[in-house]
Amino acid sequence: MFRYLSASAIVVLPFAVAAAQSDMDQPRWMANMARHQRVIMHGVPAPYNVVRDTIPDTPAKLRRGAAVFDQHCASCHGWTGQGTGPAGEFLVPAPADLEWLARTPRNTADRYIYWSIAEGGKSFNSEMPAFKQSLSKRDIWSVTAYLRAGMPHASP
Q1: Which residues form the signal peptide (predicted)?
Q2: Cis bond upstream, residue 47 (ω within 30)
């Protein structure tokens, strides 16, 4: 009897936790609402308003972006960038869905993406870490180009 109860608990517990959490979670679309609102009202912060990527988007740059994304971002944002990575499963707000960035004009998206990666989400009550101290500018620009390109080298 105990064996069956233990097995039932193992099967049911994850669903119970997910159901309880779903009542507390903000919908996924709200995860970046504060950041988007800030950009709409005021633009990106002044230091990031003038940043420019001077390196052309080459296949090598996109591969580098994929490698950096896989190492630092995919655990939360998922391999496809939909915000469904295993480490981000219980984050509130949920990791951002990055797919839309590929459809955003480069002159708008570049500064936004660079700023988001560099500064993280602390000021927006998000668990996204700031990478400006741990990634080089080249790496941040490579990830930026990779996201804008629609993540062409996504891992399985």
Answers
A1: 1-20
A2: no
